[in-house]
Amino acid sequence: MCSGPLNESILRRAQDKQLVEFRVHDLRGWTHDRHRVVDDVPYGGGSGMVLKPEPFFEAIDALRGAESQVLLLTPQGERFDQTMACRLAEAPHLILLCGRYEGFDERVRSLADREISIGDYVVSGGELPALVLIDAVVRLIPGALGDAESAHQDSFAGGLLEHPQYTRPPVYRGLRVPEVLLSGDHEQIRRWRRKETLRRTLQRRPDLLERAALSAEDHGFLADIRGTEDGEMTNTRSGHEHR
Ligand code: 4FV
Question: What CATH code is carried by the domain that includes residue 109?
């Protein structure tokens, strides 16, 4: 389940460039019984199975080094985001504990330096959350992305949503690329992109705007946007658009 994503595209190239090394361990490797059991029924009854503590403790005994950070993937953890990804991209060694079934024996949590959630929903195992984290972190390692890719333009790179992107053809099924992007006027293009970043963030994630460091120019753009939006708002209430 893990080898696929770890050996494709950016993660593959990052390994080839010796920027990162991945090791995936089978928890059963730290069991000692004939059936290599890693789970058991929950104390106090109830449905489902719980992952036993022993294999995790023995795994961490074997894998943890002086610089290791143990991250436990769980819906009960801190919410993973771009800021956390940037910080983890500087960590020399991460050990990611992935759950299955109903989750971990509670004592496993004592092994973790941080508990991390990728979002308020439940998936069937911690592997996909771990792979999401790995992908978001590795692409931030200097040199991991080629020229064609760039992390600094990503959504959330500046804590705001990314501006609209366009490529050829200039018109498709009547849908036209904004003139300014065809103008070659890089200052106007920069301004248009910043304004669209602010517009999209205002419309879709106003919470991000509150936390963002905005320039005087940004506030100017926002006043424009709010002005026109309010203008449009007035019109839409009466049901038809005035462009
Ligand atoms: C999850 C999340 C997540 C819970 C039970 C695996 C599952 C099962 N992990 N962010 N959301 N984990 O749903 O990190 O063991």
Answer: 3.40.1280.10
